[in-house]
Amino acid sequence: MDLLLRIAGEASGPKLLILGGVHGDEFEPIMAIRRLAEVIDRSRLAGQLVLVPIANAPAFKLQQRCGPDGLDLARTFPGNVQGGETERIAAQLTALISECDFLIDLHTGGRAMTIWPLTGYMLCDDGDLLEVQRRMARAFGLPLTWGTSARLEGRSLSAARDMGKPAIYAEWGGGGGCDPAGVEAYVQGCLNVMIELKMYASPLYVDPMPMVIEDHRYGSGHLQANYPAPLAGFYQSAQPLGRVISEGTLLGSIWSSWNQPVTEVRAAGAGLLIVNRTLPAVSEGDALATILETDGDFTGVSEDMASGDVE
Ligand SMILES: [Zn+2]
What we know:
The protein is α/β, with parallel strands linked by helices. The chain is built from 6 helices and 15 strands. It binds zinc ion.
């Protein structure tokens, strides 16, 4: 929490917490929060921005998703002040969420995955809270907004849900670099949400028209549990991120030995490929892909909107 920065506006208003670096191998969020601090004009800000660019410093130091204790910070909320390192960080962040009115938690696919640009929220039972989250997610302006199960635990969003605070997260690309296009999308997205929440006066706002999908099934929104690798080996993805694919399409193949044919991984359903593994080294059980299975209309979605194309 060394890099915590508070920017107070000249007018009063709500407090917005923006988190980056909850996972230590996701870099666009960190740069975007730094850029946001540079571009904010306090005379136009009503309320307070609370910025945490590197929420999980031990994981960032290791250049890995998780810190030395191996716990995933995004599965550890609300945390424990008397617990281990990751649990203590989660408890500190939970305290920050409790003092703020809104939360944006910025992510990417990390070193191993690339993710179609999307803004997500939990489909909580509180209708007023849900409506604010929908407004925030749509205002952020990425191609997809995705409402998913409110029953997932351990996230910053579940901590916010339990306190009745509107919260969204965002995903953009991945692969371990820091793509300027992702940084720009995140800076603009945060500004858009601030404008939507009447915290910021700016002419930059462009009314976005994202694809909106809501999926109430338990486990929806859990990106680390889909298409687990059936064995360890060298994975080669066969599809670009953002492609609309049909059931049975080859997603990729795993090569493990000269003595065995490659193992093919095929789509179990049709939909939009929103998560793609790009790190070839896989262990058994590692997530390889997520297909957004929906009857939704993919009009307006094109592959060139995706970053980190693997082809
Ligand atoms: Zn993440």
